[in-house]
Amino acid sequence: MIIKSVYSGVPPYITKDGSIIRELMHPAVQGNRNQSLAEAIVPPGSETHLHQHRQTEELYHFTAGRGIMQLGEERFPVEAGDTICIPPGTLHAVSNTGPDDLRILCVCCPPYSHDDTELVVTA
User: Fold this and answer.
1) pLDDT of residue 77 exceeding 90
2) Rounded to an integer, what distance in angstroms lies between the CA atom of residue 108 and that of residue 123?
3) Which of 14, 40, 70, 98 is the most buried (most CB within 10 A)?
């Protein structure tokens, strides 16, 4: 059985962290089982909300642009070609510091769930 999606057929939406998301492969849509793959876009001058996932491990692979990644208490530059592992329960956010869209492929295992996304309010 072939499980396939086509980028142009995947509508974008704004997720809880504030990024523009396209769920390229998700069990709720395509029927795969153990993980999800999405593209996140953070426009120039924007940033995602600080958040965590209690159950989900994420891999971020940056495909275009540059920015600053916050992972726990650490902040560091990221750019196209970088890949970051975000363990479950780790606070994280990313800001776009460049002139172009910051594009990220996000792999989630278990698959992404709004219910597993907790926004963090900072004082």
Assistant:
1) yes
2) 29
3) 40
